[in-house]
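## Example pair
The file below holds two records. Each record gives the amino-acid sequence first, followed by its structure token line.
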Amino acid sequence: MFYSFIKILATIVFHIAFNVKVRGRDHITSAGQILFCNHLSYIDPIFLINAFPRKSGKIHFMAKETLWKKLIFRIALPLMNVFPVKRGEGDQDALALAAEYAKTATLGIFPEGTRAKDHVMKRFKSGAALIATTTGSPLLPCCIYYEKGLAFRRKITIRFGEKMNPADYENTRALTRAMKERTEELLAQKHNA
């Protein structure tokens, strides 16, 4: 219920505060996919929740466990379908939950593992590719593009691309590299239709 409230509130606030355009919604299906996206800001998940069609269900985001140290995040993140992962520890519980969402819903991951505040995309970690390879779930590429920082009425483009089949790649390393390349291709389109 809170997720739906966030979606409605975000729609109102984002259309007042920002000039948001969403491209490529036709690539989104309702279940069994892994959404991966570049990461610029703490509000990126809200941008994606807002851009995701209601008929396609909810996005379940994986985020670093250290965010739960702050009270505001401990309260808000679970309400927005965000679950913690212990990075670098092979968190089996989080991986099992992620695999379940990847097969039955939409799993959302920011493969850089951190925000690229300078707008220079970081190296992609292999977690999303590993989950996709293990589950056979297709990968839905996405990018959030805006110039400089977030500001009132800033033009923001959220672009979804064609899905990627993990079976088309030799291994997780090749898939991870292809995921970053696909994100770079989407970003290169900037605000173009």
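Second record, same layout:
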Amino acid sequence: MEGLRPFVSEVVVPTHAKPVEIVRFRFSHALDSMFLDRSLMKPPNLVINQPLSGKDPCALYESPGNLLNKVHSGSSFQNAYWYKIKDPSCQFLIFLIFFIDKTGIDGMQRFGLEPLRFTLSFFKRGVRVHSFAWRTLGYVPDLYKGSSAESLDSCGGKNLPAFSKERPTFPRTLLNCLLLVL
């Protein structure tokens, strides 16, 4: 569990004079914690060919009745499987599913964070709705909120609205922070 401790990294974003601190977690450690979680890694929780069906659990998923109701039975997954998997006996394809949503962290909603979380596509939907099936990769701070003094400081002394021509757009700034987290 030592590897699941957060650490802080700095990222330079075009909208701020100073680097922005991002709290993040190591992806490999978060992924390991999923694979080692016995409550998650049970065949009934997984979108795999069930062992009792007589099919190889690691082979390309075959949906019962050919229903397109899981991530692994859709055409995107099928195409990726045939494109990437060269040796099904030792390769297994899993999609990453990401989630990001802003949340306020003070009573006045002046300061916020956007936690970036992920899970794996081979967990059934009924499992993915639970928080224990998700891991956090990092927290992106709200880059445009705060006091008016902080806003002026972040724009080099100019009082600019969030979407002005002189200030790069928010999605690009968020992307810079997310790239660091990933």
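Notes on the second record: The chain has one domain: 7-181. Residues 146-155, 162-169 have pLDDT under 50 and may be disordered.
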